[in-house]
Sequence to fold (724 residues):
Amino acid sequence: MPSEAPPGAAASPGGAVADPGGTVADPGGTVADPGGVPAGDPVVDPVVDHVLEFPGGYTRTTGPVIGRFLTELRDARIVGVRTADGRVLVPPLEYDPATGEDVTGEFAEVGPAGTVQSWAWVGAPRPEHPLARPFAWALIRLDGADTALVHAVDAGDARAMRPGLRVRPRWRAERTGHITDIESFVPEVTKIVSPVRAEYRLRPGRALTRFLEGVARGVLLGCRCGSCGKVYMPYRLSCPECGVAITEERELPDTGTVTTFAINNLPDPRAPEVPFVSAYILLDGADVPLIALVGDVPAHEVRQGMRVRAVWAPRQEWAPSPLSMSNIKWFAPTGEPDAEL
Amino acid sequence: MSGNRCAVIGVGQTEYRTKRRDVSIAGLVREAAARALADAELTWRDIDAVVLGKAPDLFEGVMMPEAYLADALGAAGKPIMRVHTAGSVGGSTALVGASLIQGGVHDRVLVVAFEKQSESNATWALSTHPPFNASLVVGAGGYFAPHIREYMRRSGAPGHIGTLVAVKDRRNALKNPYAHLRIPGIDRAMVESTPMLWEPIRYLETCPSSDGACALVLASEKAVTGTPAWVLGTAMRSEPIFRAGRDTVDPRAGRDCAADVYRQAGITDPRREIDVAEVYVPFSWYEPMWLENLGFAAEGEGWKLTESGATALDGDIPWNASGGVLSSNPIGASGLIRFAEAALQVRGMAGEHQVDGARRALGHAYGGGAQFFAMWMVGRDRP
Ligand SMILES: [Zn+2]
Fold:
């Protein structure tokens, strides 16, 4: 029953219960309205400041019901009052706003947790606001209450706010019996951050070292299985089909054929731009493709069967650490006719 | 089928969502397990052993979650093991559980698989870019897009086939209360208006990232309670990803795995003899590709089956009546959900997406670079 908040109580965490002063912008038109200034007189501006502030502040006698509520707040408890038909009003009133009847004298402790029903995000708080950082004004129905209370929710980010968000009060250490004894509500803990870090020291291993040493010399090294005759690239020590050791090295040319490819529209740190083409390239004489970038051609002009050649970075830019593929920038079209697939 | 008879007697699923912020990992798997136990009218005490599956630990950053989750799954004093075969793991997990029944080791096994993708980012976890790599690999979509392109070239399939699957599976999802992606009014124009992520794969032709868990209770014949789905055949296969001449469009391991399951179940014509199939289709084009790989259509003809509407819920061989992986994808559980939905169909308990009179159903999963396969056939009648 989200709409059953007593209108006055729900409207302001200060207003209906105990006016904290200063939050009401214009109590009677006496402060803000400069009205009556004759138009078209640029010389004399008769506006002067005139402040009406009762010394020490007005008092508000709480009466028994709101007084009990504020007294409990001072003890870091939240209570509501029960109506004749059994509902619990929070903040409490002396009367049931729906019927006009007196409430019962029965107070019920509610919360401290509650559920956000709706909210408005305050992106640029004013000096009078309860928090100096962005926050939400929210209608919060405390557990056990039948009505909602307006208060601030310190959620950090508007995206953290949603109907149904569970929140709890953050109490001030020094409490005086005022709605601001609750500094704000804060979301319940639903998530923690658990940093996980695994650090490895990697070596490329014998086969890949041999291959990458070749790349460092400008050579693409493959190998041929003595059992099935297939040529593998990069160089490896055993045949994945036959399981036997491979001993025959074979240098492969840096030309090949695009067998198939993807046009990637999601950025990748290893690609110079979006879109980029990652292609299966079967080097001439090899029986397994490698996956590499295709460049120097618009992405949508790449074709299955396109002939390509490795584009090596200029010698002076070659990586100081030789064990890397970075000496090859990408593969680019050779201009030859497409190969049959 | 080899070994003792085995039946699925309980199925439990969580709601699949982008973020299940309301439950811990333990709470998530317990939700599915408790529902499976309730379905079987059993309690934790009735279970002999637990088999847990999930995809790489790097997805949640919980290393060896089976150790942490043993108590949560009621495994104190009982055997528990963990299965991992990449994306096919959910299927493999069911098959490991079934083998414990078929082998006569246990009478009731709880099988659970899960993923809580929202705890990190699967694309990050799959793209660790180790040094010294000789090949540039770009996430799951970037990996599979070239295989789809090659399928399109070989088969000559028109470009809208993937769109049809994306629409069909999401429409089915509207009939599945557990499904994650629910897109009322989805149609071809909507799918075609979404951007290419990894051309030729569009955004809406891609599976979502989901949190969720799925659980089964498997029983030996003498321990059956409630409504059984009988296991008629089980098989797993893998193939070397770097083998020369490997066919990534029509993987040999998938064909061999299907042939093994069909042989055990006595299936000679899958299109006619299977009533409904739950097949791992994470990118829409994998429906026509797997239609061929699984023998529902001849090579190059799978897309025609899709185009004809045969695989729709009212077609003669509905595929992914539940909405499939395209609609819900808690990766580690995605394979088990296929197996579970197959069981629900032959038990007559699939609700709004029930295929009338389903007697035999195929559950399928694949993983890695399309190099791991797991399948089972379940039936209404005891073999
Ligand atoms: Zn060989």
Summary: The pocket of zinc ion is lined by residues A 225, 227-228, 230, 239, 241-242 (CB under 6 Å). The two ends of chain B are 8 Å apart (CA to CA). Chain B has a mean pLDDT of 95. The domain at 6-121+209-223 of chain B is CATH 3.40.47.10 (Peroxisomal Thiolase; Chain A, domain 1).
